[in-house]
Design brief:
two-stranded antiparallel ribbon; 4 strands; binds fe (ii) ion
């Protein structure tokens, strides 16, 4: 018997999180010696496993405040997307751990294995919330079905650092908002966000330590270009995703635009600890161009069957992207409080 096709908002192939791999040989040459004390401290912290009992398998996840069908769609889409992102992190870290073990780097392998442990817990927890909604995603078969994208090691370090830190700020800002407005906590899942975000914060710090192991990766022209490109692309993806899924944030009682800006401000500020330059978000046209990009993106999605209009919008979108990409940046040391 063939299974019915899943509802549109649950189709994993419509979602953007991808699966990645990188230059294992180069990763195996990471020289930890300059970062030895930080490495030992982080490994010990990961071994301590502060959240061992946090993601309790018996925690009740099924109690939902009454949601309308549209609200359910918003909640479920966010769950699916987050679950796949967490699982993608698990696969990357687990893959690196296995390969580093083969390459005779047991310490590094151990560190990635501990990060994979956390991501597996996160994905598993979200998966349980989905099962409580009657939705099943076959995570292991997803990795077999979807292409795995290869990126150079420096791209992986920059993008994973940012996704961990942006993940941290997303979880903590939602947590703070719901603590101030508990009437909007419509699912028990949100009660778990605070220690959860500490996992992501630790992962970001570990990746930052690995960036520091590679002289030249966060200095000079290369460091400035990598910082600009990854901050810009990660922030843009965030803005477009938040705008596409605005209903989810409104369901939490949040203004999606405001949330997007807060997440970018905080992540940009945090990135000063790892990147040589960060964007000047206030006092520049950054957010204004973000609004125009989001607006053009929306129009593009709504203009199927109008090729001329589409061409014009595509040109506008491209021009906005370029201006957005070229927005001013400042040296990290300058902006530090
Ligand atoms: Fe995670
Ligand atoms: Fe993480």
């Amino acid at each position: 018997m063939t299974r019915p096709a899943p509802a549109l908002h649950l189709r994993e192939d419509l979602l953007t999180p991808r699966f990645y791999t990188t230059e294992i040989g180069k990763a195996a040459r990471t020289d930890l010696e300059s970062q030895r004390p930080a490495f030992e401290a982080m490994l010990a912290e990961m071994e301590a496993d502060y959240n061992r009992d946090h993601f309790d398998r018996r925690a009740p996840l099924e109690r939902l405040r009454r949601l309308s069908p549209d609200q359910k769609v918003a909640y479920e889409s966010d769950l699916v997307r987050s679950c796949i992102s967490e699982f993608s992190g698990f696969l990357l870290f687990k893959g690196l751990s296995l390969q580093l073990q083969k390459a005779q780097r047991p310490e590094l392998s151990r560190l990635f294995n501990l990060m994979a442990r956390d991501e597996a817990r996160h994905a598993g927890f979200l998966n349980r919330a989905l099962v409580a909604e009657g939705i099943e995603i076959d995570l292991p078969s997803l990795s077999a079905k979807r292409p795995i994208t290869w990126f150079p090691l420096d791209w992986v370090l920059y993008s994973v650092y940012l996704s961990e830190k942006i993940g941290y700020w997303r979880y903590i800002l939602i947590d703070r908002h719901l603590k101030a407005q508990p009437q909007n906590t419509f699912a028990p899942l949100f009660d778990f966000f605070e220690p959860w975000c500490q996992d992501e914060n630790r992962h970001g710090d570990i990746i930052n330590m690995l960036i520091r192991c590679w002289p030249g990766l966060n200095t000079g022209l290369r460091g400035r270009l990598l910082s600009r490109f990854f901050l810009w692309s990660v922030f843009l993806t965030h803005s477009l995703t938040v705008c596409e899924r605005g209903d989810f944030y409104r369901l939490l009682g949040m203004d999606p635009n405001r949330f997007d800006e807060d997440v970018m401000r905080q992540t940009n500020r945090t990135a000063r600890r790892a990147f040589p330059v960060v964007f000047v978000l206030d006092g520049s046209r950054y957010f204004q161009l973000r609004d125009q990009l989001v607006d053009t993106y929306r129009q593009l999605k709504d203009c199927a069957g109008q090729p001329l209009k589409r061409m014009g919008l595509n040109a506008r979108f491209g021009w906005l992207l370029l201006r957005h990409f070229l927005q001013p940046m400042q040296a990290s040391a300058e902006g530090k409080a």
